[in-house]
Amino acid sequence: MRTEVDEVLIALADPVRRQVVDELRRGPRRAGELADSAGMSFPAISRHLRVLRASRLVEVRALDEDARVRVYHLRAEPFVALRAWLDQVEAFWTEQLGAFSDYAKKRKEE
């Protein structure tokens, strides 16, 4: 069973999708703008956007002035979940390294 963090990591495993996320950090963008910045065709970027939407990293909205135009933007929640998981991993390794440091100091004193 996949978790939200699993879906985020799978989506971010692809360098093109990470590039899209980096572009969206600067602000909302149309799919065509994202395709241009990635140097890809519209169908190719659409496949990546579909994965990012499925992982809930991005949302798409229609413009008020033209409902045919779709604009993509980042969602904060999946990144919060990822950060929480990374904090847990970091705490584990900090504890492990601290224990090793204590062991090394004790061995040195002996």
From TrEMBL:
Stored Pfam families: HTH_5
Domain HTH arsR-type: 1-91
PANTHER family in the cross-refs: TRANSCRIPTIONAL REGULATORY PROTEIN
The protein's name in its UniProt record: ArsR/SmtB family transcription factor
SMART domains (alphabetical): HTH_ARSR (SM00418)
Cited NCBIfam families: HTH_metalloreg (NF033788)
